[in-house]
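Work Package 3 (structural annotation) set out to generate three-dimensional models for the target panel prioritized at the project kickoff. During this period the team completed the workflow that converts sequence records into C-alpha cells, so that structures can be stored uniformly alongside our sequence database. As a representative example, we reproduce one entry of 72 residues exactly as it appears in the project archive.
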Amino acid sequence: MSAVLESRPTLEAFLEWENAQPGRHEFHAGEVVGRVGARRVHGRVTQNLARRFAERLDGSPCRVFAGVEPPR
C-alpha cells in the first residue's frame, strides 16, 4: 500500500507519490485529480497517431484534434 498524499502537495511530492501508484493522476493547480483509464503508453500512441494524421492532412482544410475538444 502506498503512502497517503498530503492534501495540497508540492509538485515534487506529487511526482514521487504518482510513481508508486497503480493508476495515473494529474496535478492541476495544486490539486490531485485521478485520470480515467488511460495509461502513459496510450497517450504516446494517441500523440503519434495525431501527428501522422496531421502530416498526411497538411495542406488540406482538415484539422486533427486528439484528446481535447476542438476550439470553438
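Residues 27 and 33 are 6 Å apart (CA to CA).
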